[in-house]
């Protein structure tokens, strides 16, 4: 039985993944499957950089805006939902196009990593939660970097549950969670995946894009979203980049300008960790937006797809409109 062919578009935040994913989906009769741990939630549209209807250009997008913001959501649940979605898209004769920057989700789903139960220590977990409440996610990130830097590379400092879980696994088993994941990789992946990645030759240009995006998010109502999360204590949704960084402003501890600067710095650091994570994947075909025009980049992406054995029969140059 042949495997389902999937196109994956990955990379750091603000690199253009959504736009490229839509271009590809239009050309291959595809549908987008989001690979973002925060876009799964309703509301928080600005903070999680959800694609607008205009940006979707009529392409169906799945696993976006489906859960209440206070609902916990695990990696295992994502893999289950995404697997079902990919199977459904394929059954209807369309191509699944996975788009996102949550590297752990993408790898676990597309490489078929088996999720196994690890040790639990509720008392230690509560201690870590207290540390997070007192000193923030950055403290947990420091702790995780000491014992499991490989896993830390794929986690944002605001994602308290994932940080706590990784520390708990190391505490109870003595083995980093990243090593548990490595050992659980199967000999054969469940999908035939063609990986496309976006990265910048000059990383400062990516950071400029991130700074600009944050400014645009502020103009588009990020402060109101963060205020709603702050007032209702939506712990899960508030993990999104853009919320917790603004909380000190609501507490009267920092100016808005200081909080926005912190947000930009936090997002840049997250992008760096995303790049570190994806750089380990030797199957990714990289594209650099700062070394070519957008039309050239899209054309190069299509050429890569046409040269692959997976999609050469459904993608033709005459169908490509740049």
Automatic annotation (TrEMBL):
GO terms for molecular function: ATP binding; tRNA dimethylallyltransferase activity. One of its GO terms (biological process) is tRNA modification. It is an enzyme of class 2 (transferase). ATP binds at residues 11-18. It comes from the Bacteria. Its EC number is 2.5.1.75. The record marks 102, 125 as: Interaction with substrate tRNA. Coiled coil: none annotated. InterPro entries: Dimethylallyltransferase (IPR039657), IPT (IPR018022), P-loop_NTPase (IPR027417). SUPFAM superfamilies: P-loop containing nucleoside triphosphate hydrolases (SSF52540). The keyword Transferase applies. Substrate binds at residues 13-18. Residues 36-39 are annotated as: Interaction with substrate tRNA. Keywords: ATP-binding, Magnesium, Nucleotide-binding, Transferase, tRNA processing. Catalyzes the transfer of a dimethylallyl group onto the adenine at position 37 in tRNAs that read codons beginning with uridine, leading to the formation of N6-(dimethylallyl)adenosine (i(6)A). NCBIfam families: miaA. Belongs to the IPP transferase family. Monomer. This is tRNA dimethylallyltransferase. The gene is miaA.
């Amino acid at each position: 039985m042949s495997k389902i062919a999937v196109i994956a578009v990955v990379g750091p935040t603000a690199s253009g993944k959504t736009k490229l994913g839509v271009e590809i989906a239009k050309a291959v009769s595809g549908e987008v499957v989001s690979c973002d741990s925060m876009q799964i939630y309703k509301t928080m549209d600005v903070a999680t950089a959800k694609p607008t209807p205009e940006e979707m250009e009529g392409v169906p997008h799945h696993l976006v805006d489906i859960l209440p913001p206070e609902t916990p959501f695990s990696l295992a649940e994502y893999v289950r939902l995404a697997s079902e979605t990919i199977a459904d898209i394929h059954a209807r004769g369309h191509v699944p196009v996975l788009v996102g920057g949550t590297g752990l989700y993408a790898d676990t789903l597309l490489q078929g990593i088996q999720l196994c139960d690890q040790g639990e220590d509720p008392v230690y977990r509560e201690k870590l939660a207290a540390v997070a409440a007192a000193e923030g996610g950055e403290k947990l990130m420091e702790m995780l970097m000491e014992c499991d830097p490989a896993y830390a590379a794929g986690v944002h400092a605001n994602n308290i549950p994932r940080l706590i879980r990784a520390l708990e696994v190391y505490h109870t088993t003595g083995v980093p969670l990243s090593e548990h994941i490595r050992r659980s990789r199967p000999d054969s992946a469940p999908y035939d995946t063609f990986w496309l990645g976006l990265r910048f030759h000059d990383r400062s240009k990516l950071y400029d894009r991130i700074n600009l995006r944050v400014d645009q998010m502020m103009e588009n109502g990020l402060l109101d979203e963060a205020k709603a999360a702050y007032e209702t204590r939506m712990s899960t949704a508030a993990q999104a980049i853009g919320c917790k960084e603004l909380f000190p402003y609501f507490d009267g501890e920092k100016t808005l300008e200081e909080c926005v600067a912190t947000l930009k710095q936090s997002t840049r650091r997250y992008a760096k960790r995303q790049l570190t994570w994806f750089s380990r994947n030797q199957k990714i075909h990289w594209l650099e937006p700062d070394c070519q025009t957008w039309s050239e980049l899209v054309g190069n992406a299509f050429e890569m797809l046409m040269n692959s054995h997976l999609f050469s029969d459904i993608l033709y140059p005459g169908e490509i409109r740049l």
